[in-house]
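Quick one from the shared queue. A colleague (R.T.) flagged Large ribosomal subunit protein bL25 as missing a structural entry in our internal table.

Convert sequence to structure tokens.
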Amino acid sequence: MSETLNLPAVARDRVGKGASRSLRRTGRVPAVVYGNKEDPLSIHVEEKELVRQLMTGHFFNSIVEIEVDGATVRTLPKDVAFHPVTDRPLHADFLRVSADHKVHVNVPVVFTNEAASPGLKRGGVLNIVLHDLDVVCAPDAIPDDVVVDVTGLEIGASIHIHDIKLPEGVTAAHADRDDTVATIVAPSGLKSEDGDTTKGA
């Protein structure tokens, strides 16, 4: 499971573009917490701490506990808007979650046992179609990643969503589509061996 992150925050009493610009000048990032049938909560967080958590690489599939006015709000990050030139965070959105609230998250796909794939050992190439998988699960069951074992796979093999063993309590959001996750394709040299013809023959 992904670790729980903690993010201190301060409630915002003023909203609007002018107030947001003032906050950013002091190193703060305006944000909003919404969902779970409660009123939206306008807050601001420290830019440096938000950036640090973004750099963990698993911010968007981690539970973030926001501490504001002595209370802790369990959330899932949904969006962070960045400045188009400086890449500084401009605004963040967080979704309130509860223990029985199923959430949709994108989880990285990790491939293992490549040395045990005959196709890859012969020079085949692992062509990754989906780098992330959209899954549905309880907040406390969000996995760090989804592991795909390529043991025994030959050139031409395809891995689909239904081939992946997901952790207990985790389901693929679009399992009915059974999208291709990855394929093992022949190396370019092997593909062209039989296809070359002499021009003008």
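Residues 5-96 form a domain with the Ribosomal Protein L25; Chain P fold (CATH 2.40.240.10).
The radius of gyration is 23 Å.
Added to the table.
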